[in-house]
Structures are given as structure tokens and as C-alpha cells.
Amino acid sequence: MHPFASYVLRSYYRATGWNEDNLYANLTRSSNAILDFSVPRGLHLSISKAPNGLFNTSYSMNAMPSLNGSVGYIFTSCNLDVKSSGSVRLKDMVERFKVYDQPRRPEGKGEEWLAGERVDTRDYLLYGRLYLPTGRLDALYSTRLSPTLQALVATISDPRSTLSSEKRSRGDNVSNVMFSLQHDIGKWCSEYTYSAEDGMWGVRVLHNFGRLRNPTEPPEDLNSSPGTRPKRVDEEEATGGGLKGRVSAGAEFYISAKERSAGVSTGIRFTTLPDATPPSFQLPQPSSSPLAQSSRSPPSQPPTTITALFNPMMGHISAAYSARVSRDLSMCSRFDFNVYSYDSEWTMGAEWWMRRAASKYEDELEPSLIPPEQPSVPVPQAESVDIPSDIRGVVKARISTNNNVSLMWEGRLKQMLVSLGFVSDLSSRSKPIKAIGLELSYFSAG
Amino acid sequence: MPSEETKERITKLVEVGRTVIHYGWIPLIIYIGYTRSTPQPTLIKCVVSVPLFDLGNF
């Protein structure tokens, strides 16, 4: 379950049109959502409130392992549509398998002029969280310098780290400040980072092969599929097979003069094109509808993402395959191997969306996948957009060859978001349950 | 190379800056949230905003 602050940050990115999925750091996001979900440990309670669209407050408390709490404040320059925990779309709050939309060049907001002067300001987000009783402060400042450029400054300030040199040498609770500059033009996305504590410079680059999506056209023009095009006399039937998609490749390089260390990593990802037709549009249409042609298009392929990462200095290879095998079930398998030590690990996982028993509605719509032009098309089923979701929760499970089994349920109880899970170690007879936890989150808007 | 005195001064400046950010960051967010929100909420609502009244919905 995303923390409230992370939900607000994502809403901010969506409101400002920033595509955080086009970063090299998020290359394996789909498989990580299934395999690397974090199980709550102990008891977590958090309540948050958004008095208005700009300002949000969040309180949280952890009990059981040790009692501690935190208070956080977020301010954004643009009005966000932050929902309450009772009405928020569950899929927005859970890290999940998703085939991401084709990247496009981010567009800034339009210029606003008033009395001959430009009055529109740069978008920004301010976030601060103070932990008690340690007094640690997490701070984040993010701003859009230009439509394609975003700057981030993140700080951890811990007053204890100045007092105890022992902790500093151990490397925990160390204050740090990190600068990051992200440049996204759709086809290319680069990120430059500097971390002050260890003096580390880093560059990450991601390149998307193939044609970019033009923001003015629908995401995937199904009408141009071979079925609708007049056939040549000598044309052969399409043989099908194989997945249609796009390929992205990226690399990361970091160097620290202070620590005398450097690193490099490369990655490649294949992902199928998102099926941009919302399910309600896929229902049988009257032949007069302009979308009727799409029903003749080939059956859509299963959403699939394949990634491979290689770190030549550490000799680490990681390959993952994830796919949505049915409407509610996504599965993933990942193989990690080290060419120097021959260490290997195979991890398998699945996420299963649970629905109310008498499910008569189709899948929830992906807001990012609805092309802006589509709502203007007269479609009889369009009102199904307003129907509340029938999704009750999600179960995630993973098992790996190092005998670790994790199981987690995330869902909504009354007005609260709940996640419950455990991590188990099958090889240990004395302590088979490594961790167990419950997280309750409640937030309201207005 | 900067002299020892300059180095000391820079270190002290960084320390002061860090302390100011540590204790001033959250008041700054509250102040900006208070002044830039429309309609302007009361200051106490900005500092303490607990959805206690909404909890009655359970």
C-alpha cells in the first residue's frame, strides 16, 4: 500500500503531466510490483487529511516492534484531486503489474497572461516529515523547471548523526542531501544525480525505440489494423504469433571520488503495447458507431513485460518475465544470477485481484489510457465510467528458491485501507514466521 | 587551496544552514500552505488537521 505522501506525489506528477515511468530507475517496476512487495512489519496506523487541494497533513504511528510516530506536511502549487480512503481507486494505492503507456514528450501547462504580464508560475511540491522521538527530518522539494525538465532535492537530516560518530561509521541514520535533475523528451529520458554524503555522481539514461506516440492521436490506433485495410490480391494472411510491443534500453553510471568506487548497470525491457480501448468500449457496438471497426481487429495480446538487467562490475544478471494471464491474475518469474560467484535465485510471484461475488461490471478503466478524444464519441456504455469499482482487494504472493515465502492481502474495510501480510522462512524450523504485520490507513479530503 | 580558517568558516556555515533547514522546513511548509491556500484556512487547521470528525462514519 502506498503511503499517503507517495499517493499525493503521484497525484502531483499526474496533475503536472510528468511521466515518472519513463525513468531508468523504474525499468523493472512491473515485475517489482509482483515480486518485491513490502510486507508491513508490526502494527502501523496512519491518518491523513487534505483540508484543501493544495495542502495535506499526515500522521502515522508504528507500534509493536517499537513505538514511534511521524508527522508530515505536503504542499503543492497545483490543485490535486485527492480522494478519501473510502472512495479512492484501490488500484491507485497499490503498486501493481501494469503495462505502461507509450511515452510521450511531456507538455507544460499553457502560458497564462494577465494585463500583458505572464502570471503562470512554476509547479512545485514541498514535503516534510518529522519523526518522533528521534527528531529525524525527511524533506523533499520538487519543481518543474521547464516542460521537459524537473529538479528534485531530497534531504534526510538526523540530529543524532552529528553526535554519535559510531553510527556514522556504521552508515545508518546519516544525514544526506541528494540533488536530481530529470530530463524527459519522450524518446530519451536522462537523470543526473548527486549525493552529498558520499560525493557520488550518477547518470541514468533510458531510450525508447520505435515511434513515439503523438499526444494528439489516440494511443494505439486500432482502426489501422490489417483487418480494416483493403487487401492486396497477392497479400498473404497474417501468421500471427509473437507479441507486438516496444523496446526500451537504458544504462546507469555512478562514480564517487570520496569512496573511490564506481558502478555501471545496463538494462533492456520489452513491453507489449497497452490495449488502449477501455473495456466498456469493447462491448458489441452498433454498426453505426465509429468504433465498430475495432471489434474486427485481432484479439488483444496478453499484457506482458520482459526485462533483463546486467551489472558488469558485480557480474549480476537479472531476467524477469511478467504477464497478466487473466483479467484478475498477473504472474511473474525472475531469475537472478551472479557470473562470478554462481549464486542464483529464482523467484516466482502472483497478484490476484478479488472482486465482489456478483460482478457485473467490467474492469476499472485506466485513467491514463483513456484518450482525450474518446469521451466525445457517443457510446451507449460510457456511463459505466461512473460506476464504483467492484474490486475488494488484492492478494500478492511470492516464493523464492532461498525458501522465503511472502503473502499479503491489501484491501478496503469500511472506509479504511488495510494491508495484512507475513514473511515466512521455510528452512527454519525454530522460527518459521520471520515477520508479520498489519497496516491501517485512513485519510479524508475536504 | 582555501586556508584552514576559510574551511572552518564553510563548515560552520553548512552546520548553521543544516540547523535552519532542520527546524525551519516544516514551519515553512505550514506558512506557505497557510498563505497560499484559497480559501485561507485557520492557522490551527493547517498545523493540526486530524480527520477525527470524519471517523464518525465508521
Automatic annotation (TrEMBL), chain A:
Subcellular location: Mitochondrion outer membrane
Entry annotated with the keyword Transmembrane: yes
Biased composition (Low complexity): 278-298
Recorded topology in the membrane: Multi-pass membrane protein
Region of interest (Disordered), ranges: 212-244, 269-305
Matching InterPro entries: Mdm10 (IPR027539)
Domain of life: Eukaryota
Biological-process GO terms, alphabetical: establishment of mitochondrion localization; mitochondrial outer membrane translocase complex assembly; mitochondrion-endoplasmic reticulum membrane tethering; phospholipid transport; protein insertion into mitochondrial outer membrane
Keyword Iron applies: no
Pfam annotation, one family: MDM10
A single cellular component GO annotation: SAM complex
Keywords: Membrane, Mitochondrion, Mitochondrion outer membrane, Transmembrane, Transmembrane beta strand
Oligomer status and interactors: Component of the ER-mitochondria encounter structure (ERMES) or MDM complex, composed of MMM1, MDM10, MDM12 and MDM34. Associates with the mitochondrial outer membrane sorting assembly machinery SAM(core) complex.
UniProt similarity note: Belongs to the MDM10 family.
Primary role: Component of the ERMES/MDM complex, which serves as a molecular tether to connect the endoplasmic reticulum and mitochondria. Components of this complex are involved in the control of mitochondrial shape and protein biogenesis and may function in phospholipid exchange. MDM10 is involved in the late assembly steps of the general translocase of the mitochondrial outer membrane (TOM complex). Functions in the TOM40-specific route of the assembly of outer membrane beta-barrel proteins, including the association of TOM40 with the receptor TOM22 and small TOM proteins.
HAMAP family in alphabetical order: Mdm10
Annotated domain remarks: Lacks alpha-helical transmembrane segments, suggesting that it resides in the membrane via beta-sheet conformations similar to those predicted for other outer membrane proteins and porin.
Protein name, entry field: Mitochondrial distribution and morphology protein 10
Organism field: Suillus placidus
From TrEMBL, chain B:
Membrane found in the keyword field: yes
InterPro entries: Tom7
Keyword list, A-Z: Membrane, Mitochondrion, Mitochondrion outer membrane, Protein transport, Transmembrane, Transmembrane helix, Transport
Listed PANTHER family: MITOCHONDRIAL IMPORT RECEPTOR SUBUNIT TOM7
Localization of this protein: Mitochondrion outer membrane
Assigned protein family: Belongs to the Tom7 family.
Lineage: superkingdom: Eukaryota
Membrane topology category: Single-pass membrane protein
Organism: Suillus placidus
Gene Ontology biological-process entries: protein import into mitochondrial matrix; protein insertion into mitochondrial outer membrane
Pfam entry (one): Tom7
Identification of the protein by name: TOM7 family-domain-containing protein
A GO cellular component annotation in the UniProt record: mitochondrial outer membrane translocase complex
Keyword Cell inner membrane assigned: no
